[in-house]
Write a structure and sequence with these properties.
Elements (H helix, E strand, L loop, with lengths): L16 E4 L8 H19 L7 H8 L4 H11 L18 H19 L5 H12 L3 E5 L5 H7 L8 E3 L1 H7 L8 H9 L7 E5 L2 H9 L4 E5 L5 H6 L4 E3 L23
Parallel strand pairs: 1-2, 1-4, 2-3, 4-5, 5-6
Helix pairs in contact: 1-4, 2-3, 3-4
The structure holds magnesium ion (MG).
Magnesium ion (MG) binds next to loops.
Length: about 260
């Protein structure tokens, strides 16, 4: 079976390194973020006599935006005017940045109190890949990547983690620039063309295409296979366990079958 799209794509069995996005690929972190926003805005809006916070607010004003933008846009919708403040503001500050920092504290609290379970299919794939000798890294825009991996009990699996903190310390451009993935491949001692990018976001698969990686796998958690393919995925799966048979030493030496 041939892989669709790019001529440079090589089968999974021919690769050496796997570069995993975190949120939506290894862990269902969106649910934790949703609960953290509710934990912030539920009491806050009540105290300010505004209409109660609902899940609909999350999708309308917050989802997918940088934290402070999410705060600003929800407050605007409720007619609450706060000064911007600065990222160094305390979580207690009544500013846009203060509330954003309070949301981050709520996220950490949610993780500590309830943990997060990695996707079982992703764990099965990770186990099989590590047993087959692939090198693995996590590449995430999130500054919370280490806490999420720790809460899921898989922090020690990854010798290389390039997260939001590493990216800003090293001046690496975020996705869709390929820089963070390239940095992870280099740290694993591999070149881009022998590394696989595994992503659930269009900006992430685009980073894979921009970096001319050996293979770009899109994981469809709701974005849609067409969008992922359009932005650079060579293969789209709905669960990482669908890739196990394509691993080196697996039963399907031709690599993972494209879906749809
Ligand atoms: Mg993601």
């Amino acid at each position: 079976m041939t892989l669709p799209t790019r001529g440079t794509a090589r089968p999974l069995a021919a690769q050496r390194a796997l570069l995993f996005d975190l949120d939506g690929v290894l862990t269902p972190t969106a649910a934790v973020h949703m609960r953290a926003w509710a934990r912030l805005f539920g009491p806050y809006l009540e105290q300010h006599g505004a209409a109660p916070y609902t899940d609909d607010d999350y999708f309308r004003y917050v989802d997918g935006k940088p934290r402070y933008d999410g705060v600003r846009s929800l407050l605007q919708a409720r007619g609450i005017d706060l000064p911007e403040g600065a990222p160094s503001d305390s979580p207690d500050a009544d500013t846009v940045c203060g509330l954003g920092n309070r949301k981050n504290a709520a996220f950490t609290a949610e993780l500590t109190e309830h943990g997060v379970d990695a996707y079982p299919g992703s764990m099965a794939f990770l186990d099989a890949a590590m047993a087959a000798g692939y090198r693995v890294a996590v590449v995430s825009s999130s500054a919370n990547a280490r806490s999420v991996l720790d809460a899921a009990g898989i922090l020690d699996r990854f010798p290389v983690i390039v997260d939001g903190t590493v990216a800003s310390a090293d001046g690496l451009a975020g996705k869709p620039a390929p820089d963070t993935f390239l940095d992870a491949a280099t740290r694993l001692g591999c070149s881009a063309d022998e590394s696989v990018v595994i992503e659930d976001a269009t900006s992430g698969v685009e980073a894979g295409r921009n970096g001319r990686f050996g293979l770009v796998v899109g994981v469809d958690r709701g974005v849609g296979a067409a969008a992922l393919t359009e932005h650079g995925a060579d293969v789209v799966v709905t669960d990482l366990d669908q890739l196990i048979s394509g691993l080196r030493g697996g039963s399907d030496a031709a690599g993972p079958a494209p879906t749809r």
